[in-house]
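Sharing a chain and its predicted structure for anyone who wants a worked example. Both blocks are below, sequence first, tokens second.
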Amino acid sequence: MRIVLVHPEIPGNTGSIGRLCAATGTPLWLVEPLGFSLEDRYLKRAGLDYWPWIDVTVVDDWRAALTDDRLWLFTAHAEQSYVDADFAEGDALVFGCESVGLPAELLDAFPAERRLRIPMVTTHVRSLNLAQCAAITLYEARRQAGLLT
């Protein structure tokens, strides 16, 4: 199982997701362009001193990150909720950048049944924080795959 961030923009979010990955032993893939440097102090601050234990891979194109794995693409425009997905070991949880989400080209390259959303009860909030989304879905995916101890 791994998390893939496509064009992340906010270093604090990526740092928080890095900490999540360190806590769960989950590889983190970053697809360029990134909205920050990997040396960014806010990235380092959000990930605290856990960076030595984060398995980070940086690639320059989403095609290099999204190979033969079972993919779950997270988008507010999906019909299916993440609670209805059948997660398994080896899945890739794919998230887009904070401002616009996943590129249409990427979404169009995979079947609609691979797209998931995180439901929100009210209409007062446009979106959740990227790090929150990663945490919600990673722990559910790991629970379903029997990877929680």
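Comments welcome. Residues 2-144 form a domain with the Alpha/beta knot fold (CATH 3.40.1280.10).
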